[in-house]
Every structure is written in structure tokens, then in C-alpha cells.
Design goal:
The protein is mainly alpha-helical and 136 residues long. It folds into two domains: 85 residues, no CATH class; 39 residues, no CATH class. Helices cover 56% and strands 0% of the residues. Helix 1 runs antiparallel to helix 4, helix 2 packs antiparallel against helix 3 and helix 3 packs antiparallel against helix 4. The structure holds zinc ion.
């Protein structure tokens, strides 16, 4: 996964206009966005847009479109790679995935999530409820 953040940084580094601090900030923002994508995807809305908003101040106005295109493409590739890993029951760091639901006894559900919404088959209705409230 760190290849993704390094890739974003490497593509964009020549256009950074805010000096050494800018380079550090762009690399750090890319790393934390990718890490969050890998570990906290369900609570991370619009990852590409939020990374772009964070780093765009380090680039001149005429490069903004290219910066956005790079961020969008790399984050999309990372999401696809993560979706594939998710089907193996592990996140990008090799941790076992667990259903996001809390049981009636207040403990977290230990079943394997069955698809991209992060819930096991018994808790799919929670995913649907979330989608509806997000759409509303
Ligand atoms: Zn469950």
C-alpha cells in the first residue's frame, strides 16, 4: 500500500512550489490518506477529494488539474486493490477483517464481512440502512 503514496508523491514532486516543507507535507498527507483508506474505508468519505483538498496549496494554479488527475487515479487503483484483498478476509496490513456490527450483548460481531459494506451476511440490513441515510 505504501507504493501508492510513494507513487503519488513521485508523480507530483516536480511541481511542488512550497519548498522542503511542501514536499514533506505532500508525502505525509498521501501516506495518511492511503493508510486511512486501507484501515478505515467505511468512515472515510471521498478519499481522493479530501487528499486533493489537503495538498493542492503546494502546487501552482496551472498544475491543479494534473494534481487532481494523479490523486484520483492512484486512489482509485488503491481502492480496487483493497476491494480484492477484502474478499480474502484481510485488510492491506494483513489484519483479519471483522463485521462492523455490534451484537445485542454489546460486543462486536466476529463474523467475516461478506462484501464491500463491511457487514457479515446476518448484518447486511445495517449496510442498507446506512446507504439509505447517506442518500437522504
Ligand atoms: Zn455481523
Amino acid at each position: 500500500m505504501y507504493q501508492v503514496s510513494r507513487g503519488i508523491y513521485r508523480e507530483l514532486a516536480p511541481q511542488i512550489v512550497t519548498g522542503r516543507d511542501g514536499h514533506e507535507a505532500v508525502l505525509r498527507s498521501s501516506e495518511s490518506a492511503v493508510e486511512r483508506l486501507a484501515t478505515d474505508r467505511h468512515y472515510f468519505a471521498a478519499p481522493a477529494r479530501s487528499l486533493f483538498r489537503e495538498i493542492r496549496i503546494h502546487f501552482p494554479i496551472q498544475d491543479q488539474a494534473r494534481v487532481w488527475a494523479v490523486v484520483r487515479d492512484y486512489m482509485a487503483a488503491a481502492e480496487r486493490a483493497l476491494a480484492e484483498l477484502t474478499t480474502c478476509g484481510r485488510d492491506a496490513f494483513g489484519n483479519t477483517l471483522q463485521c462492523r456490527a455490534t451484537t445485542r450483548r454489546g460486543t462486536s460481531c466476529r463474523r467475516l464481512p461478506s462484501n464491500a459494506n463491511g457487514y457479515c451476511p446476518a448484518h447486511q440490513h445495517l449496510g442498507v440502512t446506512e446507504e439509505l441515510s447517506a442518500a437522504a
